Amino acid sequence: MTRRKFLGTTLTGGATLIAGESNMIFAASSPAVTEADGNSLFRLGGDLPVNRLGFGAMRLTGEGIWGWPADRVLRRVFELGVNLIDTADAYGPETSELLIAEALHPYPKDLVIATKGGLTRPGPGQWMPNGRPEYLTQCVEKSLKRLRLERIDLYQLHRIDPKVPMEESLGALKKMKEAGKIRHVGLSEVSPEEIERARKVLPIASAQNQYNIDNRRWEKTLTYCEKEGLGFMPWSPIGGNRGLKDNALEAAARGYRASVIQLALAWLLHRSPVMLPIPGTSSVAHLEENVAAAKLKLTAEDWKRVDASAR
């Protein structure tokens, strides 16, 4: 399928989405815990209310996170009450941001779009950091253009570039924030110490680290985010390409008449009030399965057993 043909079909679907009904409810008070049809809310940066179960737009792109996809789900995302979409200029590259704009612009009032910059794409499956200030400034400008926005709600430094001092990279984002082109700034794959260092340059609203029921490497970062009231956006929340293969978890899921994916997502939502899972998919059926996880309710004892079974 050509890019022009794909964009044409996506535009047609976008009108249906925007005209559809939404079941979102927004919090009037703060941090995180007002319920909305089973999906609690979190205020990113203290002022952006989002349903905690979001959508990761990386899988909208082609094989190797490169090029144009064979399927589309954006028209269904907002209908299901999801109002946080996470993307990046590296997804496609550029494709994911273009798809979001073509499908959803003009955007529904309460939709929050988070994007990222600072990773380059030499080819399919290849990722290389670039934290040079002039490059990040260009990244922000180009994302604004692709997403058809005047200001990006949450702009995340996709990776800290070991060749560039963090302060220089974040200094560029601080200037864009001061210019009104970024509302909040987030980080990705960072330790508590790195967040502390970043906060000396500018306010940080969130951290996006790999985390799921099988992989808790960034537990200290999650604890830090809880203490400081920052959003924690776990990427690969259901295990990525390899998935979650734990037999004990599969047995537990059957016991609750849920899929392993639903149980894993529900566990994340239960694990912390600052947790903002962003599972991605290019399948409408999988999207609906993911969103249904927010309604899975277990007792405190049930959660202890699930947690123990996954360790």
Structural commentary:
With 311 residues, the chain is of the alpha/beta class. The protein has eleven helices and eleven strands. It has helices spanning 3-19, 74-77, 95-104, 133-147, 166-178, 192-199, 219-228, 247-255, 260-271, 284-292, 300-310, and strands at 41-44, 48-51, 55-56, 84-86, 112-117, 119-120, 128-129, 152-157, 182-188, 206-208, 231-232. Strands 3-4-5-8-9-10-11 form a seven-stranded parallel β-sheet, covered by helices on one side. It has a two-stranded antiparallel ribbon with strand order 1-2. A hairpin with a 7-residue loop joins strand 6 (119-120) and strand 7. The protein starts with a helix and ends with a helix.
Task: Work out the helicity level.
Answer: 25-40%
Radius of gyration over all CA atoms, rounded: 18 Å
Overall CATH class: Alpha Beta
**Low-confidence parts, pLDDT < 50 over ≥5 residues?**
1-30
Structural class estimated from helices and strands: alpha/beta
Total domain units: 1
Query: What's the mean pLDDT score?
Result: 85
A few lines on this structure:
This protein has 311 residues and is α/β, with parallel strands linked by helices.
Write the layout of secondary structure elements.
Blueprint: H1 3-19, E1 41-44, E2 48-51, E3 55-56, H2 74-77, E4 84-86, H3 95-104, E5 112-117, E6 119-120, E7 128-129, H4 133-147, E8 152-157, H5 166-178, E9 182-188, H6 192-199, E10 206-208, H7 219-228, E11 231-232, H8 247-255, H9 260-271, H10 284-292, H11 300-310
Parallel strand pairs: 3-4, 4-5, 5-8, 8-9, 9-10, 10-11
Antiparallel strand pairs: 1-2, 6-7
